[in-house]
């Protein structure tokens, strides 16, 4: 096999695995295995792998929680796991939540709200929303009766909620990365993502896992409907906020499910 043939084989391999790698590189701080910009088509296909990336993240967090639990008390473990959770995702979704809080609650009309969503400055609504969400996550992590299952499912279902939002609801802008994903993600990506989410929910949580799946779908719908009452469509920041809110609701569901 000559050099040209080897390059062709490498190119085919890269093209085959580009969508899941794009999902991994986009949603986490994983080292880049593909050192080139992903095409819009690859980013659209990557949407179907979002819950799989969430499951990988959840497995890492569950393992970390188990290891730290042998050394530190639950309160310290919760804080450390939450810190790593934010770091591994590059605070991508948390940043989306902050912008969403400012944009949806800080503007008087759709045009102003979209403008605020683009603004990198942090306002009062962003600070309040971010602090409240992180406090709720921290408190939930310390109160979980079964942290392993909850940590597996929360990131998985959070990213499944993003897929529902991408495929199921209109996009507000005519350009940008979110637009590229929206235009090229459809039922095949939603089917793949839902299959992964269902498998993880059932094998990790059984009945409560399926309840959490239903909650994730309901929360995603509520976030999207509220957004559409304030904007002509969703944005990338809204996708990130959806992920954060769904994750928090899943954690709370497992806290409530284990309460006496």
Molecular structure report:
- The protein has one domain.
- Helices cover about 80% and strands about 0% of the residues.
- It has helices at about 5-25, 40-45, 50-70, 75-90, 90-105, 110-120, 125-145, 145-170, 175-185, 185-230, 235-255.
- The model is unreliable at about 1-10 (pLDDT under 50).
Rg, alpha carbons: 19 Å
Count of discrete structural domains: 1
Helical residue percent band: over 70%
CA distance, first residue to last residue = 66 Å
Integer average pLDDT: 91
Morphology:
globular
Low-pLDDT segments, ≥5 res: 1-11
SSE ordering: HHHHHHHHHHH
* Beta-strand content: under 5%
Decide which structural class fits the backbone. Answer: mainly alpha
Largest sheet descriptor: none
């Amino acid at each position: 096999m000559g050099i040209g043939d080897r390059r062709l084989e490498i190119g085919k391999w890269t093209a085959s695995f580009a969508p899941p790698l794009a999902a991994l590189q986009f949603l986490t701080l994983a080292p880049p295995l593909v050192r080139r910009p992903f095409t819009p088509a690859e980013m659209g296909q990557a949407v179907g792998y979002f819950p799989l990336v969430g499951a990988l993240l959840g497995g890492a967090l569950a393992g970390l929680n188990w290891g730290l639990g042998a050394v530190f008390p639950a309160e310290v473990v919760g804080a450390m796991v939450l810190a790593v959770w934010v770091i591994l995702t590059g605070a991508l979704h948390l940043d989306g939540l902050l912008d969403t809080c400012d944009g949806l609650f800080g503007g008087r009309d759709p045009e102003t709200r979209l403008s605020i969503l683009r603004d990198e400055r942090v306002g009062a609504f962003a600070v309040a929303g971010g602090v409240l969400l992180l406090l709720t996550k921290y408190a939930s992590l310390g109160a979980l009766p079964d942290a392993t299952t909850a940590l597996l499912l929360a990131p998985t279902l959070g990213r499944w909620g993003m897929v529902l939002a991408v495929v199921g609801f209109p996009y507000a802008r005519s350009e940008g990365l979110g637009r590229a994903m929206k235009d090229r993600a459809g039922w095949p990506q939603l089917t793949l993502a839902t299959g992964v989410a269902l498998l993880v929910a059932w094998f990790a949580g059984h009945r409560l896992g399926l309840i959490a799946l239903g909650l994730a779908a309901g929360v995603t719908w509520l976030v999207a409907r509220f957004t559409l009452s304030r904007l002509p469509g969703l944005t990338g920041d809204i996708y990130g906020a959806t992920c954060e809110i769904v994750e928090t609701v899943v954690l709370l569901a497992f806290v409530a499910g284990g309460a006496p």
